[in-house]
Every structure is written in structure tokens, then in C-alpha cells.
Amino acid sequence: MSLFYAYRAATRLLGPALHLYLNRRKNNGKEDAGRIGERFGHPSSPRPKGKLVWIHGASVGESLSALPIIDEIRRRYSDVSILVTTGTVTSAALMHERLPQGVIHQFIPIDRQVCVARFLHHWKPDLALWLESDLWPNILTKAKKAGTRLVLVNGRISEKSFKGYSRFPSFIRPVIAAFDLILTQGEDETKRFAALGATNVSTAGNLKFAAPPLPADDEDLTKLRDQIGKRPVWLASSTFDGEERIAGQVHKNLVAQNPDLLTIIVPRHPVRADAIQAELTAQGLNVSRRSQGHAITGQTDVYLADTMGELGLFYRIAPVCFIGKSLCSGGGQNPLEPARLGCAILHGPDMSNFTVIVDEMQAAGACRTAHDVDDLTRQVGGFLHDATSAQKVAAAGLAYASSKAEVLDRTLDAIAPLVDSTSKIGAPHA
What we know:
It is a single chain. This protein has 430 residues and is α/β, with parallel strands linked by helices. The protein has helices at 3-13, 15-27, 60-76, 89-98, 113-123, 137-145, 159-167, 169-177, 187-195, 218-228, 243-254, 273-282, 311-317, 336-340, 355-363, 373-385, 387-401, 407-419, and strands at 51-56, 80-86, 104-107, 127-131, 149-155, 181-184, 201-203, 233-239, 262-267, 287-289, 302-304, 320-323, 344-347, 368-369. It folds into two domains: 3-206 and 406-419, Rossmann fold (3-Layer(aba) Sandwich), CATH 3.40.50.11720; 218-401, 3-Layer(aba) Sandwich (Rossmann fold), CATH 3.40.50.2000. The chain contains 18 helices and 14 strands. The chain starts with a helix and ends in an 11-residue tail after the last helix.
């Protein structure tokens, strides 16, 4: 038995365990209790009539990449309905805020054949656009068998994942073969997918370059700026466990030379806010929390922005930012988001989820690496004392983030023949 069919058998046999796992996640706040049925393939909305394009982005980053695609499909094809699926509570909350009216959101079903079949039987998607690298064997192969045309958009495969897949070709080849078209972020990804058996694969570029600036509420922006006044401020964004403590230490290291310093921390997972506050308080810092309605006062050392979907607000406020998940956890977060909003960007040594982008930004002088807490202290302090240097890095970042927006047109032009296949789209599936 090939590994692919062994996987199918395992997901069938482990059904009860998967149900228990999802229920445990629900109890821990990692699943939406009111929508848990969607994870088992039960729909919570009716299927619209006519053509349906299904767009899947696993989490927040992929979901944001989907937004310009959604807008462009709606502009080009007025008769197409759109279904968006994601896999996390945070991405669902983001989609609730950002999706245009009329676009349907559902949670992706778990990769059990019975759940997938239930999902496909109801939605009958005509075309599926799958973002980046969330490759679920049962969902993709059963959608293909049901008559859905599939495109991998913004395809990404790391060197580590490529080596792992290469060891088990019988597992990955049926998954790769499910796609009618694969559009990758770069030439390295194109070569890796081709080596794994992809035949219709080409480089379109990274859709993260097509994303609009993160939004911000004008009233909130004015209110926060009034509260901050002329205080020097820096931001630690999308932080993971351990990085909040480092940000607190940086604040303590700099406050002697910057007595009015304000540090803003936006944790990647706001559910950790109680623990973060306790850790910062133990460092002797005065913490104000956004989720609790606290104002920024003269006594506030750290403003803990423990809310969802407001990162655009804080990138607009802070001239200097550190990107999290790069010092204590690995991979980094999207550096184009702060670059679009005029931040001088610092990050840790592990930005492996954005290797090409960061390498190009480094070469353009658009970001800098901080290797530890002392290095981060030195560089944040340097930017705070030399506004011209910070503005130079920020300007280079903005120029770079604006340099490749044509990727959206290339992507839509590539998938247009599949969207235009009206002889099949909208027809009943077998």
C-alpha cells in the first residue's frame, strides 16, 4: 500500500480521535464553538446559484493574500460567487472584518473523506484557488475527482518541505497531480514543484506584493496619537512567547536615555495576554491593555495591544518596529506590511518564511537584522536617536513593497482560462 492510501486509511480509522481532538481545541478556544460543525463538513450557509469559486487560505497570512484576488475576481466576473475557507479562529475573525459583502466564509473541513465529501456535496465548487502550501491530500484529490478545477496560487514550498516530500513521492505525487495549474512565488519554488512531478507549473510572483496597506480606524488613530503625544515610541509586532520579555528588556535598557519611551507590543496570539502582562509586570513595567480599554497615560511603559485586526493602526503610529517570530520562534512574519506603512524594520535572524523578500530588502537597505536583546536594544536606540536613519530605511522599505504589484494581474490572467470555461463552470458535478 502506498503512503497516500495509508494516509487515507489512517484518517478513516482515526475519525473518533479527530473528533476528540477538535472538541479539545474548541474547549481551549482554538475552534469556534458555534461553528464547529463546519470542521466536519456541515455547511452553515446555502450555496449560491451559478458559478462558485472557492478560495482557501490556511491562516492569517494566506487570507490576507486572498483579499486582492477576491476583489479582482469580483471586478472581472460579476456572475461569479465566492466561497472562502480558512482553518483558524484568528483568520476567521480577520475575514469577518475584511471580506466584501456577499462573499461567504466557512471553516475548512478536517481532512477526513466523509467530512470532505459532505463539504463538496453541498458547495460543488467549480474552481478552487488554493493559496501557498496547505496541501491536504483528501480534500484536494476528492475535489479533483468531483469535477472541481484546482489552481495552486502563490505556491510556496520550503527546502525543508521539499526534502521531506521527496522522500515519499507516492504520497505527494497524487496531491500535486490534483492541480490543473500551479503558480509559484519564485523560481526556486517552480523548480521544486516540477521536481515533485508538477507539469503545468510557472512563476507568477508573490501575491503579498499586491496586498493593500493594512487598514486602521481614523478615529482610533487620532485618539492614540493624542495620548502618545511627543513620546518616543517603538513597536514589537506579531510577537511569540519569549519575545515580549525581550521587548520589555529593550524598554528597560533604553529608558535611561529615553525617559518618556513607550513600547507597544502586539502579540500574534492575544489569548496569551494575561501571561504576557504578568511577565512584563514582573520586569517592573507598567502595562496598559487595549482589550480592557486602558488609555496610554504618562505612567504607561508598555501598551499591550491584545486585540485582533488592528496591526495597521500600530504600524502607522510607530516609526520603528521589530517583527516577531524571528528571535524566540522561527520563520518571521510578513515584512511588507510594516514597509507599506513607513516603518523602519528590524527583525531577528530567522525570517525563513520570507527568505527571498528579506534578502532583497536587506540588499536594498530596507530592513536590518537584530541578533539578540543587546543588538535589538542598540538598533532601536539608534533609530530613536537618528530619525534620518530610520526614515531612510523606511523609505527603502516602502519603495521595495511597491515594486512588484503587477503580480496580481499575472495571476488573474493565468487563471482566466479556467474561470472562463463556462461550459463546465456552474454545471452539476458528478
